[in-house]
Amino acid sequence: MKFPEESEVCSDSAILNLWHPLVPEAEVPVGSVSELVLLGRTVFFTTGVSDEYLVWSEKSKAPVSGGSEPFPEDKQLPVLVRYGYLWTSLGSPPNGLFEIPEFEEPDRRNIHAATIGVHCSAPRAIENFLDMGHFPYVHPGILGAEPHTEVVEYDVRVDTDSNEIWATECLFYQPQAAATSVGGQLVGYTYRVPHPYCVMLYKTNPVDQERMDVIGLFVRSVTSEHIEASMFLSLLDGVNTDSTIRKFQQEVFAQDKPILENQHPKRLPLNPRAETPVRADKSAIVYRRWLSDLGITYGVIPEA
Ligand SMILES: [Fe+2]
Fold first, then answer.
1. Which CATH architecture group holds 4-88?
2. Of the four listed, 55, 67, 154, 156, which is most buried by Cβ atoms within 10 Å?
3. What is the CA(78)–ligand 1 centre distance, in A?
4. 297 C-alpha to center of ligand 1: Å?
5. DSSP state of 144
6. Digit-coded pLDDT (tens) for 47-95
7. What fold does the segment set 101-301 form as a domain?
8. Would you kindly state where each structural domain of the chain is located, as residue ranges?
9. Distance 259 CA to ligand 1 centre (A)
């Protein structure tokens, strides 16, 4: 998919040097080449029978199928396979990706729920994911219900060791918090932003009081105003089928999509005075300041 009207190619080195999700590992074609747009550039990817993944950005340098010449290393982009996705970078990425220890727990269900294209910037999608205030209005009967509209005081901070945003002590009344829920409950949330375009939440699990379900949103910025958002789940759910779980998450995201696409400006303004803050926006204020401090310019309207 191409958007020639917005053919700006990302030149934001802070973003270029990050890992970015391309597709679920299962969708990497074996023996043929797929392409998609990342940060305004077309990238190509394939895998062979040896499970070696190749990602590159120049079509003329595509590896010859069945050829005896190895694909030159200096034409390849960095590759990482983690959490069920293929990741790459258009710059010099860090050694590894942020950690999700729950992914390794043997009784977890790690599921790719969906990848959904949205006409919005990546930071708008992350900020919406952080916002509990929209639950009763956008997800009525599922993640919220009137008159339970209050966002109670919670804590949000940037962890100095990891430089990740953590929002804790979040509580919200939800009529159907998960596919496993059998009624309304006060749900505890922890939010985490480990990457400018990736966000996670840990929420009370209806099955196991001691541990939390993990839901991640890993966003590929196609251009600064178009995204493909992948929903990653690591759940304690021994009851529902994968398709029931996926359907629940897809229905929730389908409710967010028109809201996201109607936000203006599409790029997230980082000036703290650009949009009126309310208490529910506490995480948003920290997120915007954090993006500013990281020097992010792609997908945002930087502070003057
Ligand atoms: Fe939502």
1. Single Sheet (2.20)
2. 55
3. 32
4. 25
5. B
6. 987 778 999 997 666 676 656 677 777 789 999 999 999 999 999 999 9
7. Naphthalene 1,2-dioxygenase Alpha Subunit; Chain A, domain 1 (3.90.380)
8. 4-88, 101-301
9. 9
